[in-house]
Amino acid sequence: MWVERAAKKRFARNLVFLLSQQKIQTKIMSGVNKVILVGRLGKDPEIRNLENGATVANFTMATSETYKDKITGERKEIVEWHNVALWRGLADIAAKYLHKGDQVYIEGKLRTRSWEKDNVTRNTTEIVGDNMTLLGNKPSGGTPPDSSPPTSTNFASIDPGLANDTTDDLPF
C-alpha cells in the first residue's frame, strides 16, 4: 500500500515536471512561417506608392517540379503559381530590375488577407518577401544585351558610404 502511494506521488511529480517542460518548449518555439521560392516571374511587377510613402511591388511567380510518370514513362511537369509582395526597398529594386520571365530567389513568409468587394468577402494568400536575389535571364530567346538585368547588385552605388568602408568584422 505504501509503495503504491509513493509510486503515485512520484508519477504525479514527474507528470507535473513534464507538463512544465512542455509549456516552456511551447513558449520557445511556437511556429515557423518561412517560404523559399526559386522560380520565374509570370508578369512584370506592379508597383504602387501608398499614401504613407511606402512602395509595394506585386507579381506572380511560377515554380515547377518535374517527375517521370511510372505508367507512361513520360516526363511531366507540375507548375504552381504564387502571388508575391515586396515592400519598400525591395519593391524599388524589383521595379528597376525584375521583368516577366526573369528567374529570382524569394525568401519570406506566408500572409493571408481578406477584403470585401461588392458585398463578397474575398481571401488571398501571398508570399511577403524579406529577401530577394536575381538569378539569371529569361529561359529561351533571351533579351537584348542592353536590357538584361544585372545578376548582382553593386551596393556601393546604392550607398556610397559602403565604397569607403575598409573595416572588416570577419574573424579570419
Protein architecture, described:
The protein is of the alpha+beta class and 172 residues long. It has a domain at 35-139: Nucleic acid-binding proteins (OB fold (Dihydrolipoamide Acetyltransferase, E2P)), CATH 2.40.50.140. Helices cover 24% and strands 41% of the residues. It contains 3 helices and 6 strands, in the order αββββαββα. The protein has helices at 2-28, 88-97, 155-158, and strands at residues 35-41, 46-49, 55-68, 75-87, 103-117, 120-136. The chain has a 5-stranded mixed β-barrel. A hairpin with a 5-residue loop joins strand 2 (46-49) and strand 3 (55-68). The longest helix is centred in the N-terminal third of the chain and has 27 residues, at 2-28. The termini are far apart.
**Which structural category fits the helices and strands?**
alpha+beta
Average pLDDT = 79
Rg (CA only): 25 Å
Q: Which ranges are low-confidence, i.e. pLDDT below 50, for 5 or more consecutive residues? A: 141-166
CATH first level of the domain at 35-139:
Mainly Beta
> H/E order of the elements?
HEEEEHEEH
Strand arrangement across the biggest beta sheet: 1-3-4-6-5
Spatial separation of the terminal alpha carbons: 66 Å
Helix content: 10-25%
Oligomer: single chain
Largest sheet, if any? 5 strands, mixed, barrel
CATH topology of the domain at 35-139: OB fold (Dihydrolipoamide Acetyltransferase, E2P)
